[in-house]
């Protein structure tokens, strides 16, 4: 401890009981000690200052820092992301399988200098970090792109993030809840990883949201696997499935983004802007995709054509589009209508387009060519198909119990060839929309573009056909995969689960909310997987589907029932009179936002809103609590803070922030509420 002025004053005092000579000598010794201690303190302060300067210098050399929000400490390989208030919202262990090798900033040969946003570990790996800030203002959130480049065959990119106390949302496996993610306990994180995806049987977009306003999403073209909620650490880990390629010297093994903002609503907007800026190879935004005032009619078999014609002629049906069933070709890959079907198809098209029907066809198209199709040999000879590891295309893919080849959508010549046939069909059948059928392609396939993977196939197929929107052609996805920056009609498959007598649509809402936050606003409730539904089941389904941005009506035998026809008529009247004006207003005002939203979109800090998985918001004013089980008589509904009023038949005002029970035994009762504050 350094001497104070008071200590020095006390050193000058004399004690009369001690001889003066002794006191003088003792005083000199005290002064020398004080001087010595002062010198030591001075050198200590100087040393401390030098250490602090060295520490800051060391930190700049051993970390990547973007302002006060992002810090990656190289020595510990620890990532910390903060919000604008300085609170830590995400922590990660990066490069978990990276060996303890020397590191430094990456050397850039062109500039003869070190890259500040890149760290290299000897001859093992590089980590690049790039910042994206919308409007150059971090107060509105920021995104950080992390890119691992392999330099050695031994390196595997693997990053783990601590979930902490926050709730997370997104798709993992078919056996886990997605809203929020619960019930996932992997005992050994180092050994158990789930392939993403093994086989895509439904919509699948690699994005996960945290309730603290964080989003993590992987670029859709990268193979990876993941682990979740291991033991008490509660970690989310991403591991690359790609490996070092000596022929290409360096290779991106994994690329993903971490975005941060104040809430899920804010981070969604930041992430979507970031994605649109990345996807510069897509055509400009086209406004063709509208909310359809009238429903889509889905045809599943040949006999449906005649039934729809009769309904049109009797003025018993109205629609905006009708979907032709998938096997309209004699063989997949003919890209020509089956001659036996063509006269009937041309007739229904001519009847449907007449006023007042004004309904037009959706043509399902695929990039699959059976080896029996008329264009198969031409595609093979011109190198237009995806190839396997033996450089063969025959019998590469088994699709719908047929063997054949798949169009290489990264080959410009192949795409031009394919589009020429599609454009001919569009003119012949007066098509107003194309439905893009999904194929599961083997992961080891090779493409014209060596950077292409099977996970990105749907997105690139959509990009190629998006050029047709200039011809007023809308696009419908059978299954969404990855990120698509343009509007597209996207079905969400709805099916009942459970035992007979208690079947429920209990998976529909979580997947719907997840798809909305994945950047797909124009959702359709798809009834393809409903096999022989009862009248009660289908009524409950209609009460849900009517609130979706686009309504599709399947052609089912039970629709011939007079009771069901009356019920459908009432549903369509509700949609046209009360819902469509509001839906169109949302789409016009907020086209960049999801139309169907979770409750925590508006009430981020409400604990109940964070876990409700069977209700949703339409825009910011309409709350819907659909009856999801066929035998339900009482529906419990949570109304968040504010004041709410029932629909047109119930004008009771309800105070928010509490649960209410409603009798829904009468099928004419649909629990939905308007926010009036």
Automatic annotation (TrEMBL):
PANTHER family: GLYCOSIDASE FAMILY 31, MYOGENESIS-REGULATING GLYCOSIDASE
Example GO biological process: carbohydrate metabolic process
Coiled-coil regions listed: none
Domain Glycoside hydrolase family 31 TIM barrel: 302-583
Keyword Transferase attached: no
UniProt cross-references to Pfam families, sorted A to Z: Glyco_hydro_31_2nd (PF01055), Glyco_hydro_31_3rd (PF21365)
Residues in Glycosyl hydrolase family 31 C-terminal domain copies: 593-675
Descriptive protein name: Uncharacterized protein
Keyword Membrane carried by entry: yes
Organism: Elysia crispata (lettuce slug)
């Amino acid at each position: 401890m350094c001497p104070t002025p008071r200590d020095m004053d006390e050193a000058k005092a004399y004690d009369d009981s001690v001889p003066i000579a002794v006191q003088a000598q003792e005083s000199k010794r005290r002064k020398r000690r004080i001087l010595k201690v002062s010198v030591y303190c001075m050198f200590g302060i100087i040393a401390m200052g030098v250490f602090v300067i060295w520490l800051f210098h060391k930190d700049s050399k051993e970390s990547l820092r973007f302002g006060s929000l992002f810090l990656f400490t190289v020595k510990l390989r620890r990532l910390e992301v903060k919000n604008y208030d300085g609170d830590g919202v995400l922590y990660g262990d990066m490069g978990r399988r990276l060996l303890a090798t020397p590191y430094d900033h990456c050397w850039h040969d062109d500039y003869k200098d070190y890259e500040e946003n890149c760290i290299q570990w000897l001859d093992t790996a590089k980590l690049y970090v790039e910042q994206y800030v919308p409007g150059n203002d971090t107060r509105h959130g920021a995104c950080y792109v992390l890119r691992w480049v392999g330099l050695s065959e031994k390196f595997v990119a693997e990053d783990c993030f601590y979930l902490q106390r926050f709730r997370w949302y997104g798709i993992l496996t078919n056996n886990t809840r997605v809203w929020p993610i619960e019930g996932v306990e992997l005992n050994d994180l180092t050994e158990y990883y789930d392939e993403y995806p093994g086989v895509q049987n439904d919509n699948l977009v690699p994005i996960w949201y945290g309730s603290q306003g964080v989003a993590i999403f992987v670029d859709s073209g990268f193979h990876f696997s993941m682990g979740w909620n291991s033991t008490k650490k509660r970690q989310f880990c991403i591991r690359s499935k790609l490996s070092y390629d000596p022929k290409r010297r360096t290779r991106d093994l994994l690329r993903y983004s971490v975005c941060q903002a104040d809430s899920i609503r804010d981070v969604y907007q930041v992430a979507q802007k970031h994605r649109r800026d990345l996807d510069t190879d897509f055509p400009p935004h086209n406004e063709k995709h509208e909310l359809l005032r009238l429903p889509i009619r889905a045809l599943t078999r040949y006999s449906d054509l005649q039934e729809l014609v009769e309904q049109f002629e009797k003025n018993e049906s109205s629609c905006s589009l009708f979907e032709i069933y998938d096997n309209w070709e004699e063989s997949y890959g003919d890209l020509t209508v089956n001659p036996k079907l063509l006269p009937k198809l041309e007739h229904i098209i001519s009847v449907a387009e007449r006023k007042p029907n004004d309904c037009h066809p959706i043509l399902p198209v695929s990039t699959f060519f059976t080896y029996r199709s008329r264009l198969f040999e031409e595609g093979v000879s011109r190198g237009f198909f995806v190839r396997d590891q033996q450089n063969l295309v025959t019998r590469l893919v088994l699709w719908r119990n047929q063997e054949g080849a798949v169009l290489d959508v990264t080959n410009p010549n192949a795409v031009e060839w394919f589009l020429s046939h599609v454009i001919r069909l569009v003119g012949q059948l007066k098509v107003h929309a194309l439905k893009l059928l999904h194929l599961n392609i083997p992961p080891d396939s090779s493409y014209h573009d060596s950077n292409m993977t099977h996970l990105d196939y749907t997105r690139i197929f959509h990009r190629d056909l998006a050029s047709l929107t200039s011809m007023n052609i809308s696009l419908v996805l059978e299954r969404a995969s990855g990120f698509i920056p343009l509007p597209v009609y996207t079905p969400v498959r709805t099916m009942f689960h459970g035992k007979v007598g208690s079947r429920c649509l209990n998976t529909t809402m979580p997947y719907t909310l997840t798809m909305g936050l994945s950047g797909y606003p124009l959702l359709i409730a798809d009834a393809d997987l409903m096999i022989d539904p009862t009248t009660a089941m289908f009524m409950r389904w209609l009460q849900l589907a009517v609130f979706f941005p686009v309504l599709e009506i399947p052609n089912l035998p039970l629709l011939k029932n007079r009771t069901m026809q009356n019920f459908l008529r009432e549903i369509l009247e509700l949609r046209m009179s009360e819902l469509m004006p509001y839906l169109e207003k949302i789409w016009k005002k907020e086209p960049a936002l999801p139309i169907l939203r979770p409750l925590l979109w508006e009430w981020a800090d409400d604990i109940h809103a964070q876990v409700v998985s069977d209700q949703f918001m339409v825009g910011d004013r309409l709350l819907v609590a659909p009856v999801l089980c066929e035998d339900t008589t009482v529906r419990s509904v949570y109304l968040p803070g504010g004041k709410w009023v029932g629909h047109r038949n119930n004008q009771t005002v309800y105070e928010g922030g509490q649960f209410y029970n409603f009798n829904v035994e009468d099928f004419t009762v649909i629990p939905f509420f308007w926010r009036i504050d």
